[in-house]
Design brief:
Radius of gyration: 16 Å
Number of helices: 4
Number of domains: 1
Order of helices and strands: HEEEHHEEHEEEE
Helix content: 10-25%
Number of strands: 9
Strand order of the largest sheet: 2-9-8-4-5
């Protein structure tokens, strides 16, 4: 049985997830990782990553120690000042909310247990998280402008307590019909394979 942290109890990890994702150049981003080599399993929680470009990917990340919680960005979105071309926080929140409001599919499977949008709805941000500061490097994701900016996050995020010893698979799928600043629709199907030992 999977043990979930209560929704709203890990908003600081949502911020940490996006700060970590956005501060890395494209060639180091776990969100553009094809095989799992860019996933850091040393921290707690272990942050899994969405597939920024969309599509299907399987990532083998080796071993996770049995004391590690796991953060899963089932259907994440972040809107930053350079992306939206505004510093108006209300507009950043509006854009993030509209993106996620157009979600038509959200599914999470952890080993043999599958959770659909009805079950995951409580893990959607009740209000967009932020604003928070992000550092955008050269050669950034989505060609974002380099610098320190404000950002706001929305979406479906789950954090689970440590899994028992053995091999595990986590798969998350999502479809956003009208993603902000991208050609619609945006879809991802991400599978992580690892062993707790």
């Amino acid at each position: 049985m999977v043990d979930f942290y209560p929704p709203g109890s890990y908003d600081e990890h949502i911020v940490s997830y996006w700060q970590g994702m956005l501060r890395k150049p494209k060639d180091q981003s776990p969100g553009l990782d094809d095989d799992g080599r860019r996933t850091d399993v040393s921290g707690n929680p272990v942050f899994l990553s969405c597939n920024i470009r969309g599509g299907t990917v399987t990532r083998n990340i080796g071993n996770i120690s049995p004391d590690k919680s796991i953060f899963i960005p089932v259907n994440p979105v972040v809107i930053s000042e350079p992306e939206a071309n505004t510093s108006d926080v209300a507009l950043l929140r509006k854009h993030a909310k509209e993106d996620e409001d157009s979600t038509s599919k959200v599914t999470l499977t952890i080993d043999e247990d599958t959770y659909d949008v009805k079950e995951l709805q409580k893990h959607r941000c009740q209000n967009p998280v932020g604003p928070f500061e992000v550092e955008i490097p050269r050669n950034a994701l989505d060609e974002l402008k380099e610098g320190n900016w404000k950002a706001v996050a929305d979406g479906y995020y789950v954090m689970i307590k440590p899994l028992g010893p053995g091999k595990h698979t986590i798969r998350f799928e999502a479809k956003v019909d009208y993603p902000y600043a991208q050609k619609p629709p945006w879809e991802q199907d991400v599978t992580y394979k690892f062993e707790v030992k």
